[in-house]
Every structure is written in structure tokens, then in C-alpha cells.
Design goal:
about 270 residues, alpha+beta, 13-stranded antiparallel beta sheet, 13 strands, about 30% helix
């Protein structure tokens, strides 16, 4: 298949997948400079809930756990707060769709071979560089003008398995705010089938420096790794999700240093 057409079909499948509602409970581990947070996340039709289980690899103290439970209970019982969170998530999803829609035309793709994927799948490796004929339709997609890198597409599922991009020049951007990202910035996204043909992002790394509104310094360094996906019922209520999170917290507390050990293993 022509590389450009392969990306076009994969991008369409990514957008189509957003309309399929399947819910999971999973562990989210986020690392920034000199700091890390581990959370248990549960997705529900009424929005997601997350409970912190470890900070810098250490399980929460009883005092920290009490505060976390109080905050979680307050959010779970505040429909307006959950509504605002859902709206913010929808805005991000809309921006993601804009980025995906432009992905096939924003770059020139070159076939670079294949490599084995998970469960016997085959990944098609393409390199990409900016398409000189591409005209960004919005502020979000202007970042494509200064980006190059590699993309891996699962040949059978026609899904994007990995994107590894680097900024080779300064670029202006818009993502709810306006600013500039400096040359050398990097981003990495990895996706895979987490069960039943449902794909989720399992790793995302962002490393950028720049300015917001051309004045305020901007520095982003973050790696998020999501693991241990377990499907939950599509009719799961917020109250039931809250109960599951409390049970998970109790298990972590009973295991003592288990969270620290699991954190070290992921590293």
C-alpha cells in the first residue's frame, strides 16, 4: 500500500475508534522532573475517577490517604465538577481529531521496512518529514511544519502503534493557548491492543521548551505509562467506581511496599 494511503486509513481508524465506548480500570504512572505519581484510574459513562496510590514510588501515608479519599469523594459527589472535567476531555478529543485529520497530508512519508509487533502482528515503519504543500488549517496543526520522525502502523489492524517526532526548528502552536515551541522538542506516543481489539495509549512522552503567548517561559517534561488494563461494565456507576478504587487502595496498603516495587519494575 502507498505510504500516504496507509497513514490515511490508519488515521481514519483512530478517529472512528473514538466513537466506540469501552471502559477500563488501569494504572497510570506519570514521571516529571524529580517527581512521579502513580494512580488507579476507572473510566465510567459519567466520567473518569482517579485515586493516587503512590508518590515518588512510596505508598501514601495514612494522612495522605485520608486527604486523597476526601478529595476523591468530593469529586465523585459533585456532578458539576465531573461535567467540567468531561467537557475539558471532549475539547482535547476534538483537538486530537483535528491533528489526526491533518496527519496524512501534513507530511511526506517514506517506507523504511517492517518489524514484528505484539501477538504476531507486523508493523510497517515509515519515516516522515513536512509536506511543503501543506497549509495548516488551524493553530494546532502548525506544529507539523517543524516536525520529522518515524511512525509505525499495525498492518493488520491499520492502527498507529507508535509515533516518534522531533522538532527540527522553532514552531508556533495553539492548544487552548498560543505560544512557540523551540527546536529540539520531542514527543513519543505508543498504542496497543489492551483487549478485545480495543486500542489505548500505553506510553506518552513530551519534552518541550518554549514560550506561552511569546512571553512566559514554557517547559514540559512528562512521561505517562498506562498498564494493567482491566475491562469494567459499560453501565458502571460513579458510586461503584468509587467502591472499586477504595478496595484497590486497601490492597495497596496491605501490600506495604508493593507499590514501590511495582514502580521500580516499570522503570
Amino acid at each position: 500500500m502507498d505510504p500516504q494511503e496507509l497513514v490515511r486509513r490508519a488515521a481514519k481508524n483512530e478517529i472512528k475508534a473514538d466513537s466506540v465506548h469501552q471502559y477500563f480500570m488501569y494504572r497510570e504512572h506519570t514521571e516529571s522532573k524529580n517527581h512521579s505519581v502513580t494512580k488507579e484510574i476507572i473510566q465510567t459513562p459519567q466520567g473518569g475517577l482517579g485515586s493516587t496510590t503512590a508518590i515518588n514510588g512510596q505508598p501514601l501515608t495514612p494522612e495522605q490517604r485520608a486527604k486523597e479519599n476526601q478529595k476523591l469523594e468530593k469529586f465523585a459527589n459533585d456532578p458539576e465538577a465531573r461535567r467540567k472535567s468531561q467537557e475539558a476531555g471532549k475539547e482535547d478529543d476534538q483537538r486530537d481529531q483535528l491533528m489526526l485529520t491533518s496527519l496524512p497530508d501534513a507530511f511526506v512519508y517514506t517506507y523504511a521496512g517492517t518489524q514484528p509487533g505484539l501477538n504476531g502482528s507486523e508493523l510497517v515503519h515509515l519515516t516522515f518529514k513536512p509536506n511543503p504543500n501543506f497549509r495548516p488549517p488551524n493553530h494546532e496543526t502548525r506544529v507539523y511544519e517543524g516536525m520529522q520522525g518515524d511512525i509505525l502502523i499495525d498492518r493488520k489492524a491499520l492502527r498507529i502503534a507508535k509515533i516518534d517526532g522531533t522538532l527540527f526548528k522553532d514552531v508556533d502552536f495553539g492548544w487552548g493557548i498560543l505560544g512557540r515551541l523551540y527546536k529540539g522538542g520531542k514527543f513519543y506516543i505508543e498504542q496497543r491492543d489492551v483487549g478485545g481489539g480495543h486500542w489505548e495509549t500505553v506510553r506518552q512522552t513530551l519534552e518541550f521548551n518554549g514560550k506561552i503567548l511569546m512571553v512566559k517561559p514554557l517547559s514540559i517534561y512528562s512521561t505517562e505509562t498506562d498498564t494493567d488494563f482491566q475491562p469494567v461494565p459499560s453501565n458502571l456507576t460513579v458510586a461503584q467506581a468509587l467502591d472499586l478504587l477504595h478496595k484497590s487502595d486497601q490492597t495497596v496498603a496491605q501490600n506495604g511496599g508493593a507499590a514501590k516495587e511495582a514502580d521500580s519494575n516499570r522503570r
